[in-house]
Amino acid sequence: MAENTGPATMTKQDKARIFALFGRHINRNQIKYLSAGHLDVFETRREGVGFTDPLTGRRMYDCFTAAGCFNVSRRNPEVLAALEAAADEVDMGSRLLPSPHKEALARRLSALAPGDLDRVLFAAGGGEAVECALKLARGATGRPKIVSTVKAYHGHTGFALSANGKEHYRHCFEPLMPGFVFVPFNDLDAAAKVIDGDTAAVILEPVQGEAGIFPGTPEYLRGLRDLCDRHGALLIFDEIQTGFGRTGRMFASEHSGVVPDIMTVAKSLGGGLCANAAVIHRDTPLLRGFREAHPDFHETHAGGGDLACRVSLKVLDYLEQNRLWENAERQGARLKAALNDLMRANPRIIREVRGVGMMVGVEYIHEFMGPMMSDALARHGVFAAYSGNAPQVMRFMAPITVSDAELDGIIAAIRAAVRDMKTLLPLALLAARVPGVLKLLNNEKMQTALFSWVRKAEDLFSRGGGN
Amino acid sequence: MTTPKLLEGARQGAHFFDTGGRRYLDADCSAGIFNLGRRRPELAEALKRAARAADQGNFPIISEEKALLAEALAHFVPGPLECSLYGVTRGEAFDAACKVARGFTKRPGLAALEGAWHGETGFALSLSQRADRDLYGPLIPETALLPFGDLAAAERAVTNTTAAVFLEPVQAENGCRAVTPEYARGLADLCRARGALLVVDETQTNFGRTGARFAFERLGVEPDILILGEALGGGMFPITVTLLTQRVNGFMNDHPLIHLSTFGGSDVACLVARAALGLYAAEKPWDNAAAMGKRLRAALDGLVERFPDLLSGVAGEGLLLALRTPSPETARALCAACLENGLLVAAGRAARDTVVIRPSLLVTEAETDELASSLEAALRAVSSGA
Question: How many other CB atoms are found less than 10 A from the CB of residue A345?
């Protein structure tokens, strides 16, 4: 195991100093927001399936993993060694030139990708990969319309944000690009009504992540494939969260066998250390023709850097040598079974458990329970976040290296957190019956204020105590 | 291109080698990323240290790495640009600036200058002068390109629905055309009068490229938003930043986590960037860029005189210079001939008849002369039709 020189402990003064700097130079209210949900932890000794909170000394299981970045675990020693070796030889590399590392990774990705997906373009992150994919789709087809899905999450830059299906992320920045339409996920009839001869592409996540973990059914995905073929539109799978073993297959599309025309990948491609992403597309005459006519239609300055490519190659080695997708499938099934037991025992808290592989979502009865559970889980050593696009849903996306014993630890912590919830619940539910209060409780700003207050009261009572 | 394929191998200082061991002077620097030279050993060590202490981290949470870099940036960058919004690549930083401008002013209008090239992402593409723009369907509405250098036209176009005006101090991709201090100040005054924000995109000019630490300092304007490119990570690790004043950051404070970046401002990137800022502060590469820029400019002026059929002029500042040729074909041929002669350069993306020259800011006199003589050999080759 590589050394870890991060500070093992942190005092309250350290925390206050960092908060002051972060508040002054980055964002004041982000601190409040995170503190309210007990997500104001720091990360030291980042290794294996988690990290240590230096303030409490508490070991935390990482079930958020930057939304799927740490598939091969935190600071995987083999990946770390690859980074160190790469840093002795290369840098980001020139935007203009190929290199053995870029070519090797492109070859590797095209071999791994499903079906005949085999042409690779690099990008610096998931958002940029979506930008590139949508430019490719509109450019190659000469058509304006992009069909996306309600509550979809594709990123925050111009094209990606225009394809984002959540009002929250868009409303301050309108007008965005015309030509983007949104249809309910898993609703083939709705898609059939809008996919037509003007449609450049349909873009979707095979398992909607940020929306609250909704797997696309095989019938839906096959239906979309047929609709796209019939109208000459391109099918784009955004596998940014689902890729690289997360769902129990190397890529989520393998569950249905539907091969898209274009696939975007990012997150775990960088091994949790580097930034890297890619667009992988089929070598059809349409796409090939466009790229030959416009070889520099999307230039990336930071994507596919030599250093990142060497790290990515090691990530893929590690995934394949350890067949991590199999572990994701097995441990994911165990987690789902345990959560289903919890749901049966706690029908007033948990509405539904959904997921594929180690991409599992728990939907609570009320939105306000998301932040409450984040809080309860944090106290029991699980770092998990509710979905940005659906606060009533909590995602559990542990590193897919997770062992039996580690998963048992995660399950025990979730059980304990649900027990805590039960003691707080009567009060909240009673309040929720008063007209208007439920709406208030489900309001994000209200939650921040309320939980900040609760947090202060707790600190008051537990002063000097550990937990 | 008919040249045999060149694969990038080792790199050091102003140079890199192909996998066959042949040496090239990098006068593209990945569009202004390798300001401190290729694979600086100090930054390689900083990266290794960073990876021993941290990883990218969980992006929505608070970290000491993010906070300390933001503090260092607030001190390094002149003026009241105290707040950081991180990205991983320049287009992302530009799009973030557009979003903050709209969010802060609650106005839709975004205006850049003709000849601008701000990046490849949706907002950046919508505000760039690109021949291929129409290929990508209807882009961001309420965007406009103002006639360059024309204050009267700006007076008419910038209204009380304009959120921001974007300017590059030197249009690197458009023949290195520089804005004058008078024009920049005129735009700044106009923005203030109309309640719009002034955004300066320094992705190509930052950290000394034009002979000043930041190009906006010489223009005598105070941007409300400043965009810094991947040179922030010294070419070792990608990170960019959109810097905001406290006033403008009020919008982000009111909407925390409304603009996210998984890799932007990762903990490792922040640690490397802090080491790079240390090198920038210690080595002041802008001084060398000013001196070597003068030397290179003199050499290029000489080449324009000697090859009037191939070159019609030089423009730019410091070590961000462009040669104008008669046609995009000539520029392409010249780039290829330069590569044959051990020099990596690229044609401008907006003005495709130009060749942009932007070597490491730490080039020596000998390397500057090497650059000029490689260019001369390439010009001779193109001129003789070789």
Answer: 12
